[in-house]
């Protein structure tokens, strides 16, 4: 992102990228009748593309979430959804992407693409996309995607909006509006890319809900030829060590019981594990509790923690600060318990209980244990 220029509101900015597309200036000396109206070079850029996120030859859920968003954007823009599927043995998963909303899936298979490498993936994607000109490019903000997005930005000579939480279309201008938390999460910045293509952004996993699988959808799977040699890749993967070796993964949990500062003390907070056990769920927390050392950082939910998408999220004594709720938007049902009827968290909840956390917790425990 080289320059940011304020548009209408302080939170809406236009992304000015290093020029890849130069709009030709009309020649001053040419007679009016000989002057041709220059064609808008941006019009050559079409369709919403998604880069699939692959781990061990398996498509990661963020790819499906992005296809759902791409479908919504493409329908508003009157364009198609195209997916770039890279890996070693991935072609058999292409049809499923069509069932989730893709129109075309481009398959790039090679033993050299089995594991993600910055060099390999960037080369294959950039070689193809510089020729085929996407209007919009979506990348998952996973570990690999966070590495890939800025590299693609360099190759496409273009900006990228990282970690978006809301995507929409300005139908008048035909531009994607990328919304992301800014200034420590205190404001939501809306960013547009009026002058350059592709419009590029990364989106965190679990922010958007997975679209419905529709097995009646049809589309095209194209196995693409491409050039990639071992010498193009300067790194070699020696081993894969998963980040979390013990405990549980909040991002996969279907039921999360979370506590905030309103739990009062660690003893009270630890009672949440009892409820989580009884419901078949796990425990998460707000940042202050992590800072107090009551729970490990990997169970923190929010902007600087995990983004979650459980079926049920129970928020005990949590105020609903923007930095926390930016991580819970993917939850299907949110139930908040707070003794302040004005607490912000109630604005994000499907159900709210105004009351003392421990009184409500005891009652829930009794109900869950069938007492
Ligand atoms: C750059 C930055 C990044 C951040 N990232 C994160 C993040 O990733 N995740 C995160 O969670 N926070 C994050 N924060 C912190 C965030 O701003 C809030 O301070 C935090 O989320 C508040 O945590 P809380 O809701 O537990 O506490 P509080 O805001 O203190 O809220 C406690 C709530 O408990 C209620 N309460 C008190 N007693 C009771 C009772 N007996 N019964 C019922 N209710 C009660 C109160 O009414 C209140 O609403 C970040 C902050 C910054 C600046």
TrEMBL record:
It holds the Pfam family ETF. InterPro entries: DHS-like_NAD/FAD-binding_dom, ETF_a/b_N, ETF_a/FixB, ETF_alpha_N, ETF_asu_C, ETF_asu_C_CS, Rossmann-like_a/b/a_fold. Gene3D superfamilies: HUPs, TPP-binding domain. Coiled coil: none annotated. Keywords: Electron transport, FAD, Flavoprotein, Transport. Residues 48-237 form the Electron transfer flavoprotein alpha/beta-subunit N-terminal domain. PROSITE patterns: ETF_ALPHA. SMART domains: ETF. Belongs to the ETF alpha-subunit/FixB family. This is Electron transfer flavoprotein subunit alpha/FixB family protein.
């Amino acid at each position: 992102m080289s320059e940011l220029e304020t548009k209408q509101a302080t939170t809406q900015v236009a992304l000015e990228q290093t020029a890849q597309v130069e709009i030709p200036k009309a020649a001053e000396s040419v007679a009016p009748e000989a002057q041709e109206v220059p064609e808008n070079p941006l019009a050559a850029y079409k369709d919403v593309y998604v880069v699939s996120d692959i781990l061990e030859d398996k498509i990661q859920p963020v790819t499906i979430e992005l296809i759902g968003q791409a479908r919504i954007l493409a329908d508003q823009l009157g364009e198609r959804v195209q997916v770039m599927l890279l890996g070693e043995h991935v072609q058999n998963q292409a049809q499923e992407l069509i069932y989730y909303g893709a129109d075309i899936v481009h398959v790039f298979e090679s033993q050299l693409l089995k594991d993600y490498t910055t060099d390999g993936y960037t080369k294959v994607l950039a070689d193809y996309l510089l020729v085929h000109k996407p209007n919009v490019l979506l990348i998952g903000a996973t570990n690999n995607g966070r590495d890939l997005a800025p590299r693609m930005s360099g190759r496409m000579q273009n900006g990228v909006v990282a970690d978006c939480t809301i995507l929409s279309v300005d139908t008048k201008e035909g531009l994607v509006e990328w919304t992301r938390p800014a200034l420590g999460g205190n404001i939501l910045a809306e960013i547009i890319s009026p002058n350059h293509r592709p419009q590029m952004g990364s989106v965190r996993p679990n922010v958007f809900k997975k679209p419905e699988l529709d097995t009646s959808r049809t589309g095209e799977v194209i196995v693409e030829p491409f050039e990639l040699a071992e010498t193009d890749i300067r790194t070699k993967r020696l081993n894969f060590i998963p980040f979390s070796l013990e405990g549980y993964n909040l991002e996969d949990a279907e039921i999360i019981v979370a506590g905030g500062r309103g739990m009062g003390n660690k003893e009270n907070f630890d009672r949440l594990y009892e409820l989580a056990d009884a419901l078949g769920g796990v425990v998460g927390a707000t940042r202050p509790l992590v800072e107090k050392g009551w729970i490990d950082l990997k169970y923190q939910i929010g902007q600087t923690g995990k983004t979650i998408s459980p079926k049920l999220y129970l928020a005990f004594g949590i105020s609903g600060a923007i930095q926390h709720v930016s991580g819970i938007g993917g939850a299907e049902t949110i139930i908040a318990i707070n003794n302040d009827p004005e607490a912000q968290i109630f604005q994000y909840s499907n159900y709210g209980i105004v009351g003392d956390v421990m009184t409500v917790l005891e009652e829930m425990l009794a109900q869950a244990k069938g007492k």
